[in-house]
Amino acid sequence: MKKLIIFPFAILLLASCKKDEDKTCNLNSAAVAGSYKITAVKYKPDASSPETDYYNQFFPDACERDDIITLNANGTYNFVDAGVKCVPPGDDTGTWSLSGNTLTVDGGQSNVDNFNCSTMTLSSSDVFNASDKLTLVLTRQ
Length: 141
What we know:
This protein is an alpha+beta fold.
């Protein structure tokens, strides 16, 4: 009798594990909405140059490294100077949208190169000079 009771729970447990394995993360506005922190910055001055870690150059002050960007479901964003506060604080608001793999924030566009629901990799070209590439990794908070 015990086996008959345990068997349905075992099937339920296996089925619920299968659902977790099959979970996919689609790139759409609803999935992208959430809070992020920039955790990596890479830069290539031109197509033939190697990509270099640019995090410390992009965020030289500790007060800039813990800020949170919240992409709200209504198409607005909040940039909060979290943790160590800069003087003056860098809080900001604006608008964002997603069309295909293009993320637009206040009119500026970036390519979404990778999105897995916990991290998002964005890249932009011609940022500081022609044919350069800046890559940001945002980690969901």
